[in-house]
């Protein structure tokens, strides 16, 4: 663990000064380090004793010196009392008594001599007593039991939170949480929020590594959370569908939080959970990983059995949505079809709402997608996703989505608007207010963050502008069904290669729902051929290699296919079974002549060889060096698959290795899905 992280854990239970126990060296160095904070009063007292000797030599026989020293003692005592007005009464009195005792002894020693009469005894009695009293005060400044009443809280006092008490502390690996009791009527959680930048600087951590969560029932209490290390740096490759073949009502997993928990969101509402259906604003500047995060969410969605997706991207067309196109019920890749999709959405809302009312549903639920009691086909959920929506708004109207956002929830629909900046010049405030939930990636400045995240999340310490485009995939999720305590918690979307998306699109083709008659009829009546003649994109071919189809198990052959280790006696049966799949087994066979009989041994399928995991990784690294030597600057999993004979492994394994190269800094994500920029080794070393 890094040195400053260790300091966090060493002292979290007693103080917010996270590096108090930091030291290096042997036992003597350690003991000196532990004693050092308590030496100042002893050194000051010893200094007074030493200085008394030259003072006596100078003023021992001087009446004027005696008067001057007496006046100086009185003045110093008065200044100390005056300067202590801003501190507690106990500290003010303690300081004044210390100055009076020290200055009185020094004046007497300077005039009569340090060794005269009782002065030596007074020195050796008073000095340890006064110094030890300051040591005791220092030890008791923070009560480890969390029940003390001292207002002197060191770091909290320094950042403007004087009189704030740390009532308890919880220390976890890489996270420390402090329960704060604020002085009633003087400070509120808003004051703690304003102090977060100063706290981050004092603790030497990133700005968004310090967060505050107000107590919902007591405005004089809050919880301060400190996360010293960024555990999201390495990222995580897409692990495969979280609920394959499940309902859209199940959570959509799209990444991980800083503590490793799943980053998940919900589209339909759930009355039992007191959750409304979600409309989502996705926002992030160029290079922030916004499109990659959206593709990850849609990759999850198209594995569900009861949802259809209408998606639009008139700016980048197939560049972003390309791998997903065969799984979309309707893909609008130009402005004309995007406008038609918006018109169709307005038309299907009343039709879907009427259907729900007819069958007694107050809102959409998974049962809606099932065949109804009267034999009518069900109605799947409808997700309308508008990528690069700024172009759509610019070429239509800044209020174009407002009506849909206000009415679609009751019709079993969710609206997603993805753009770089949701300012008032890009989107109407009515639309933004109707969306309700937000998934926010790196932004240019704090003002942009205010367009996307609720004030509660910003006050708690959310700062997407701290990332800008330097940390692709990092995001905050403030959404329906997500506790507010998570709104300011940093997370990161999965690294989802295009090959993984293609596999999902092909593998779950039979699971996905088709557009229901009610929605289809309303859309057709509204826009005609724009809907009825919409383009159907062909499915990608499923990989036949067992490894290539294994999203869940990338290292072992868990799926159907040839058994390449067949015994010779079993090979004939395997070949015959394969032939049966290509002929009509019930057709009449032609007569067989004796001369036509030729004995042919069954073909020997060559044994499959697979290099070891470490060897395959080495080959991948060598390939990347070869690409770099050829002058290539951008590569993707498909480039490595062209040379798969070198390591004989599947697509998903290769995609995972590419994701690992991104995490190691050897590759960097680009705006184009599935393409990564090569980072020279010299740049990494620098």
Describe this structure in words.
A ten-stranded mixed beta sheet has the order 6-5-14-13-12-7-11-10-8-9. It has a four-stranded antiparallel beta sheet with strand order 1-2-4-3, covered by helices on one side. It has a three-stranded antiparallel beta sheet with strand order 15-17-16. The protein has 686 residues and is an alpha/beta fold. Helix content is 40%, strand content 12%. The longest helix has 24 residues, at 89-112.
Strand and helix map with partners:
Blueprint lengths: L2 H9 L15 H9 L4 H20 L3 H21 L5 H24 L6 H21 L15 H4 L6 E8 L2 E7 L7 H15 L6 E5 L6 E6 L25 E6 L4 E4 L13 E5 L6 H12 L5 E6 L5 H4 L8 E3 L2 H24 L22 E6 L2 H7 L6 H6 L5 E7 L9 H7 E5 L5 H7 L2 H5 L14 E5 L12 E3 L4 H10 L9 H11 L1 H4 L35 H13 L32 H17 L4 E2 L1 H5 L9 H13 L3 E3 L6 E3 L2 H5 L1
Parallel strand pairs: 7-11, 7-12, 8-9, 8-10, 10-11
Antiparallel strand pairs: 1-2, 2-4, 3-4, 5-6, 5-14, 12-13, 13-14, 15-17, 16-17
Helix pairs in contact: 3-5, 3-6, 4-5, 5-6, 11-18
């Amino acid at each position: 663990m890094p040195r400053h992280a260790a300091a966090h854990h060493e002292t979290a239970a007693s103080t917010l000064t996270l590096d108090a126990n930091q030291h290096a060296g042997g036992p003597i160095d350690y003991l000196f380090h532990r004693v050092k904070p308590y030496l100042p009063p002893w050194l000051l007292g010893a200094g007074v004793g030493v200085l008394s000797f030259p003072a006596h030599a100078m003023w021992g026989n001087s009446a004027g010196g005696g008067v001057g020293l007496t006046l100086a003692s009185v003045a110093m005592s008065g200044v100390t009392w005056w300067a202590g007005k801003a501190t507690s009464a106990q500290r003010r009195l303690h300081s004044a008594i210390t100055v009076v005792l020290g200055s009185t002894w020094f004046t007497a020693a300077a005039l009569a001599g340090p060794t005269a009469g009782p002065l030596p005894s007074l020195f050796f009695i008073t000095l340890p007593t006064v110094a030890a009293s300051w040591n005791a005060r220092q030890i008791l400044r923070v009560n480890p039991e969390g029940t003390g009443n001292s207002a002197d809280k060191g770091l909290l006092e320094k950042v403007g939170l004087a009189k704030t008490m740390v009532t308890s502390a919880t220390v976890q690996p890489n996270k420390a949480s402090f329960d704060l009791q604020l002085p009633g009527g003087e400070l509120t959680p808003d004051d703690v929020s304003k102090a977060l930048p100063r706290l981050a600087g004092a603790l030497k951590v990133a700005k968004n590594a310090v967060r505050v969560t107000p107590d919902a029932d007591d405005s004089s209490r809050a919880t301060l959370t400190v996360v010293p290390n960024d555990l999201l740096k390495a990222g995580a490759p897409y692990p495969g569908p979280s609920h394959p073949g499940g309902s859209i009502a199940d959570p959509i997993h799209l990444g991980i939080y800083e503590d490793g928990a799943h980053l998940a969101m919900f589209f339909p509402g759930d009355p039992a959970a007191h959750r409304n259906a979600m409309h989502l604003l996705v926002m992030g500047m160029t290079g922030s990983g916004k499109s990659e995060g959206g593709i990850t969410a849609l990759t999850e969605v198209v594995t569900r059995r009861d949802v259809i997706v209408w998606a639009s991207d008139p700016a980048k067309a197939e560049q972003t949505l390309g791998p997903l196109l065969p799984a979309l019920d309707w893909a609008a890749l130009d402005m004309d079809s995007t406008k038609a999709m918006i018109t169709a959405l307005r038309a299907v809302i009343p039709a879907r709402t009427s259907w729900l009312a007819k069958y007694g549903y107050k809102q959409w639920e998974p049962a809606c997608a099932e065949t109804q009691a009267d034999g009518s086909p069900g109605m799947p959920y409808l997700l309308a996703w508008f990528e690069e929506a700024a172009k759509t708004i610019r070429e239509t109207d800044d209020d174009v989505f407002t009506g849909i956002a206000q009415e679609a929830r009751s019709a079993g629909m969710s609206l997603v608007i993805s753009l770089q900046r949701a300012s008032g010049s890009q989107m109407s405030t009515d639309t933004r207010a109707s969306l309700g939930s937000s998934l926010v990636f790196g932004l240019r400045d704090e003002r942009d963050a205010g367009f996307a995240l609720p004030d509660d999340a910003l006050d708690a310490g959310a700062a997407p502008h701290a990332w800008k485009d330097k940390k692709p995939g990092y995001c905050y999720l403030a959404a329906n069904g997500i506790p507010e305590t998570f709104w300011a918690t940093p997370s990161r979307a999965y690294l989802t290669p295009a090959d993984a998306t293609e596999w999902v699109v092909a593998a779950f083709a039979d699971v996905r729902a088709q557009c229901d008659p009610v929605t289809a009829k309303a859309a057709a009546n509204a826009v005609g051929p724009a809907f009825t003649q919409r383009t159907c994109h062909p499915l990608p071919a499923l990989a036949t290699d067992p490894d290539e189809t294994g999203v869940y198990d990338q290292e072992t052959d868990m799926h159907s296919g040839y058994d390449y280790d067949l015994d010779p006696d079993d090979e004939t049966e395997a070949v015959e079974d394969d032939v049966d799949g290509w002929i009509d087994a019930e057709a009449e066979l032609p007569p067989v002549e004796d001369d036509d009989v030729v004995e042919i041994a069954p073909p020997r399928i060559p044994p499959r060889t697979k290099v070891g995991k470490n060897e395959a990784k080495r080959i991948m690294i060598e390939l990347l060096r070869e690409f770099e030597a050829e002058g290539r600057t951008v590569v993707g999993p498909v480039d490595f698959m062209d040379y798969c004979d070198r390591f004989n492994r599947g697509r998903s394994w290769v995609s995972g290795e590419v994701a690992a190269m991104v995490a190691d800094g050897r590759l960097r994500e680009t705006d184009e899905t599935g393409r990564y920029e090569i980072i020279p080794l010299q740049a990494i070393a620098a």
